[in-house]
# Entry
Amino acid sequence: MAVYTFNDMRNHIGHRIVCVGYGDKRYTDHGELANVSVKCETCGVVLFDLNQGDHYEKFLCIDNPIKNLYPDGVCPDCSKEIPDDVSDGDSCSNCGHVFHEPRPDDK
# Structure
């Protein structure tokens, strides 16, 4: 998949979006698909795809625990998107907000 954030998806507003199926020749003769993808035909980018047997829940993994603490993955002070590789204690390049895990004294 090539789209992971709101901003990634937003870039495709107004584009031609299609849902397509792909199959292994062993399966297509029997009418079965191996993969279904939502694709931006304007850019040629796969926005979302699932292989046969996949479940959407498996894609809801936490890939960055610090970024995922912040609603919509944006800085609470300036709304700039937080980088995917943010670490505990890093600061926002725009406003200086320090990103961190909750501390026991945070209330």
Q: What stands out?
A: The first strand starts at residue 17 and ends at 22. The chain has two helices and three strands. Strands lie at 17-22, 35-40, 45-51. Helices lie at 6-10, 25-28.
